[in-house]
Predict the 3D structure of the following.
Amino acid sequence: MIKKEYGVVGCPVSHSMSPDMHNDAFHHLEINANYKPIHVEPSGLENAINMFRAVGLSGFNITIPHKVKVMKYLDGIDELAKEIGAVNTVILQDDKFIGYNTDGLGFLKGIQEEFGILNNKRILLIGAGGASRAIYFTFAKETNCSVDITNRTIEKAEQLKQNCKYNIETNILTLTDAEQSLEKYDMIVNTTQVGMSPEVDDIPIILSNLKQDVIVVDIIYNPLETKFLKNAREQGARIQNGVSMLANQGALAFEIWTGQIPDAKRMEKIIIDKLGGK
Ligand code: ATR
């Protein structure tokens, strides 16, 4: 049987942990396939996609800065990815490239695996950029939770709410208002890059008055424990870092390509090892 080829397309892409995650899963599940980093400059994206067609690449992930622009070169886009307005996974299906977005679903899967099904919970999202958009639309489509949004630039949060066609209860808050109403929330999620290495002393909001049993999540994975998560843990919150979302978005892409469910915990371990954590 011919070896199938996959890859991750980005600029830069050499730091990506996806090749390690996917090649390990191919090996572990005895699938004859290979996954490699593919460096593509912004100006070369269209040519690159044409070349992928010519060589019959079986599928690929897309990362910064191509997630939005790639959409116009594909033959079809899944409904949720279309709503999110970005694609991170492409599969060659009947000679057509079809785009998906597994970021929000990967986040949701990681949360539900660790903390159980979220039923009617009140959630606060911090941030209104690309990552927040993927998580917000996924929660709106897939859950019955209410999701409030707080952001430094409040207009961007308003826009996110207005752009969502799925039925969801949402309030928009300033960062200060959010800080004063944290006791309402069952889960608080930082989707901004505030606190990411090397700015490890920054926090997106000050945590206080947390609900008992609250879940606090940071989608940052470097450092593994941001100052925000450390503060949450010290106040008794259950916490999760960004490794879970990263592994699970990859696991869902793998499932789209192969129809097989990889071991997401193995993927998490590979990421943590690469980051030098325990
Ligand atoms: P991503 O794709 O990672 O979500 P993005 O689309 O650039 O990145 O969005 C970045 C998010 O982090 C935004 O919500 C941004 O707030 P603004 O909309 O006000 O720009 C937020 N963010 C980035 N740096 C920030 C900072 N120093 N303080 C507060 N919020 C910040």
Notes: The mean pLDDT is 97. The first strand starts at residue 4 and ends at 10. The chain has ten helices and twelve strands.
